[in-house]
Design a protein that fits this description.
154 residues, alpha+beta, 6 helices, two-stranded parallel ribbon
Length: 154
């Protein structure tokens, strides 16, 4: 299934955010209008993402990434990447997109024995949001509290 782990030993880390964010609000970041329009056309042509969609459907793990820090992608902007993963079919639904940013990413980074899921004995890293990200991935950007190793840090 899409965005699920496999025994392939490798994963694809998406970084759609620069393209998506520049198409959405490139003017805000100082991009010239012709470049913003170019980005909008690129986002609209979903066929350009067929390779990664086919890989996901073949069972290659797809983990979340944003290329944060690139033009138009602040470090706290994650919802657009998650939404686009679902929109183009790299992840089947919001739940699978959330798995790509949590347990699957932990697995692919070799820390699943300590992090990535909520379970007794694990680190207790939790982000509390206002809303239901299963219904609306935008909720992940309305952070109310952050816990690291079970202690509230924000």
């Amino acid at each position: 299934s899409t965005c699920s782990g496999s025994s392939w030993g490798t994963a694809i880390c998406t970084t759609f955010s620069p393209l998506v964010m520049q198409a959405k609000e490139g003017e805000k970041w100082g991009l010239p209008p012709w470049k913003v329009e170019e980005r909008r056309r690129a986002v609209a042509d979903t066929s350009r993402f067929d390779g990664v969609v086919r890989a996901a459907k073949a069972g290659v793990p797809i983990v979340f990434g944003t290329d944060a820090g690139s033009p138009a992608v602040p470090h706290d902007a994650i919802a657009e990447e998650l939404k686009f993963m679902v929109e183009i079919g790299v992840c089947a639904d919001n739940e699978r997109a959330l798995v790509s940013i949590t347990s699957l990413s932990a697995e692919m980074n070799g820390v699943a024995g300590d992090r990535g899921t909520l379970a007794e004995g694990l680190a207790g890293d939790v982000v509390v949001v206002d809303g239901d990200p299963l219904a609306d991935l935008g909720a992940v950007e309305d952070v109310r509290a952050v816990y690291l190793d079970g202690a509230r840090v924000a």
